[in-house]
Each structure stands twice: as C-alpha cells, then as structure tokens.
C-alpha cells in the first residue's frame, strides 16, 4: 500500500502522521513525503524519518507547486502498489484502517474506492475517545453512490479516510486545479463513475485535524466558494457522464439552494444581517428557480416579516428552529455513521 503525504510547513505534525502509517498492521506500506518548499524544518524532519525507516521516501520541491500539483505528483507519478492513500501531514490514519480497507478490495474486485469513519480532533496528544462497534462493510454500485451524493449535494468524505485502487486512480487521473474547494468531491464522483464504492463502519478510518490554519475554517467568502464549486462539480459530473439521468442535476441544485437559504435563515436568527443574506438568496434563486417549494425559503420569508431586533428579543422561531436543528443533527450522525451522508 502506497501513502502519499504532502507537507507544507507542517514539520511538527509530520512524525506522528508518518508513524500512523508505518504502524499499520497486516499490510506492506511505502510512504512518500513531498515537501512543497516549506519554510520550517520539514527537510530536517523528513531526513530523520527516512534515516529511521527505509519504507519512507522524501522529495522537496525547489519551487512551491501548490497542493493540487503535489497531490498529483504522488498519486500519478510515484504510486505503484495495488492501493493508494493521500494523507495530509496533519492528519492520522486510525490503527488497522488500511487492513480493513484492503479486505473490502480483495472481496470486491469491482470496488475502486473504500472509505470509513473519520474522527475530528485538534490535539495529537489527546485524541478523542471513540465509540466503536464491530467492523462491518458495505458496497454500493457506483451509480447508486453517485445518486446519493446528488440527492444530498454534500461531500460525505473528509479525505484521509479514503483508500483508492491505484489502477482506478491512474485511470481517472489527478485532481483538478480549477476546483480548489471541491476537487475532492469531484474526484470521488469521478471514481464512482467507473467503479463501485466501499465503506467500512465500526472502527474509524482516520483522524482529521481541525486547527487554526485548517481549510475547514468557514468565512462567508469560503461559504460562497463552497456552494458555487459544489454546484459546478455536480454540473460537471453530469456533463462528463451523459449516461447519468438529467434529473440528478435538479436534485443537486435543489439541495444546494436549500443549503444557501438555510444559511440566510441562520443570519436572521443571529441578527447578523449585513447584506450577505441577500447574496445567499440571489445565489439560491440562480441555482434553483422554484424556490417557493423549498421549506428553507418559507422559513426565510417568515423571518423577513419581522425585524431582527424583534426576533432576537422574543425568540419567536426558537422552538421550531431548535427542533429542526436537533433532527438535522441526529440525522447527520446517522448518515455519517453509515457513510450515506
């Protein structure tokens, strides 16, 4: 199993990340660390790791190439084992994750990608306690998995929990530089268009670090970028796979518009009206013209009838909102646990 670890100024995370790969039981692993011209002590740390274990290789770019080019260098030019993992230097593989994924591949030759549960954390030295159930697995036909993604319009995968069959990865090609916010979603859909998809539940597959510099930080600028690029991804996948039913495009756009409207609703609830809510409404209408049929639109209209000060003072919609958010939270945990969200 080949593991590609891109690293940019993450020297302090790198040893734990590499160790989480080298300690995987039941599989033979190789590791390639690619230093994309870091300004910290990544070269020294990388050299120490290479000297300590011959399974670790290292490369350093003379000029910063960016994350997409670095990903593709490892996945398309270096990887040669049966299965490949792309692992950020600040993330960790969970114990036994690669062996569990390999088992799904071996039992299902049509599976091109296997993913699992991901655990979010912020401290290598204090990983969260994880409730584990007996390991089980599930396989979806590629078209079935694609339809589930279009229906929800969301990416169910963080990234480090993914293992890809190398010949499939190299068949579909690398990540797209024009989709920096949603390139991973496009990649998963591209893989599902040519293979089946497996999921391992019970024990986690990886730990995804959330921290100050994490790309998971959300600003309104990044929110719009995420919404726009998710819409672009689903439009692109439909255009490049004419065999997919056109109705999927409507499902995705409807769900993305609902997401934008719900964000506008939350701005009303928080009395944070600065014009962003109008931009979200315009985006939603541009994405899906039949807004009036969406419950999120009706929720927004109800809030627009009252001043933010009155809503904030009286908490007029607090109870319905709390109930809906509770249902969404419970549903999200169920979907994430089963890999269906």
TrEMBL record:
Keywords: Glycosyltransferase, Transferase
Domain of life of the native organism: Bacteria
Domain Glycosyltransferase 2-like, chain residue ranges per copy: 3-130
GO MF term (any one): glycosyltransferase activity
Record-linked SUPFAM superfamilies: Nucleotide-diphospho-sugar transferases
Top EC class, one word: transferase
EC number from the UniProt entry: 2.4.-.-
Protein name according to UniProt: Glycosyltransferase
Organism of provenance: Lentzea rhizosphaerae
């Amino acid at each position: 199993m080949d593991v590609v670890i891109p690293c940019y100024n993450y020297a302090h995370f790198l040893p734990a990340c590499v160790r989480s790969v080298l300690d995987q039981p039941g599989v033979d692993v190789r590791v390639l660390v690619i230093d994309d011209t870091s300004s910290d002590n990544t070269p020294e740390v990388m050299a120490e790791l290479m000297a300590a274990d011959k399974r670790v290789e290292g490369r350093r770019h003379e000029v910063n190439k960016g994350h997409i080019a670095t990903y593709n260098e490892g996945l398309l030019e270096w990887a040669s084992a049966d299965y490949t993992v792309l692992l950020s230097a600040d993330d960790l593989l969970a114990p036994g994750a690669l062996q569990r994924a390999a088992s799904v591949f071996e039992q299902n030759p049509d599976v091109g990608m296997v993913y699992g549960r991901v655990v979010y954390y912020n401290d290598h030295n204090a990983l969260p306690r994880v409730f584990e159930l007996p390991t089980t697995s599930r396989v979806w036909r590629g078209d079935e998995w694609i339809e589930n993604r279009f229906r929800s319009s969301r990416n169910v995968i963080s990234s480090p929990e993914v293992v890809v069959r190398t010949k499939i990865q190299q068949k579909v090609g690398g990540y797209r530089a024009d989709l920096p916010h949603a390139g991973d979603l496009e990649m998963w859909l591209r893989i599902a268009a040519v293979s089946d998809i497996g999921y391992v539940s019970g024990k986690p597959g990886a730990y995804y670090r959330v921290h100050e510099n994490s790309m998971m930080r959300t600003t309104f600028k990044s929110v719009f970028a995420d919404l726009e690029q998710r819409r672009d991804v689903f439009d692109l996948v439909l255009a490049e796979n004419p065999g997919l039913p056109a109705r999927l495009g409507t499902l995705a756009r409807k769900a993305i518009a609902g997401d934008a409207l719900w964000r506008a609703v939350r701005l009303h609830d928080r009395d944070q009206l600065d014009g962003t809510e109008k931009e979200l409404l315009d985006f939603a209408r541009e994405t899906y013209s039949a807004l009036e049929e969406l419950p999120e639109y009706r929720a927004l209209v109800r809030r627009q009838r009252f001043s933010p000060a009155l809503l904030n003072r009286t908490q007029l919609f607090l109870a319905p909102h709390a109930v809906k958010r509770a249902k969404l939270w419970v549903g999200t945990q169920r979907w994430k646990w089963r890999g269906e969200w």
